[in-house]
């Protein structure tokens, strides 16, 4: 992999706490900072296109993600996404040929101690480099086909469906 394209859509991975409002909101993408701090040995470009909780991502938003990726020359693509509708977006991206696309996110904000964000990003980076063309979800230490996985909200993890 010479270059990794990263498309960010928001979600818990990018949430930050706003004291003035006493709530969490989607902030700036965290993945670029994380990869720089880790010192990865590949080039990457980050295209932030949405800052939404995935429960608020629409069909039009999914088409924007699809069109953005399709318009780029990169063969390896990582998408950060909220976990609640990640599978829906992954299914839309399956119409893009000849790319390896891996979606990942976090169940806790990246800025939180003990967040799963860095682990999920690392898993996704490994997956995007080693898998054949197609669309995948990397969560909870596993790589999934979007047609065979679901988020178990009660258990707060992804599992086979």
Task: Tell me about this structure.
The chain starts with a strand and ends with a strand. The model has no long low-confidence stretch (mean pLDDT 93). α2 (59-70) crosses α3 (86-93). α3 (86-93) links the parallel β5 (76-80) and β6 (100-104). The strands form 3 sheets. A 6-stranded mixed sheet has the order 4-1-5-6-7-8, with helices on both faces. Strands 2-3 form a two-stranded antiparallel sheet. It has 4 helices and 10 strands. By secondary structure, it is α/β, with parallel strands linked by helices. It has one domain: L-asparaginase, N-terminal domain (Rossmann fold, 3-Layer(aba) Sandwich), CATH 3.40.50.
Features:
161 residues; alpha/beta; Rossmann fold; 6-stranded mixed sheet; 4 helices; 10 strands; 33% strand
Here the CATH topology equals Rossmann fold
Q: What's the CATH H-level superfamily name?
A: L-asparaginase, N-terminal domain
Largest sheet: 6 strands, mixed
State the CATH class.
Alpha Beta
Number of helices: 4
**Strand order, largest beta sheet:** 4-1-5-6-7-8
Write down the Rg.
Answer: 14 Å
Average the pLDDT over all residues and give the rounded result.
Answer: 93
Q: In percent, how much strand structure appears in the residues?
A: 25-35%
The domain count comes to: 1
- What gross morphology would you assign? globular
Unreliable segments of 5+ consecutive residues: none
Fraction of residues in H or I helices: 25-40%
Structural class computed from helices and strand pairing: alpha/beta
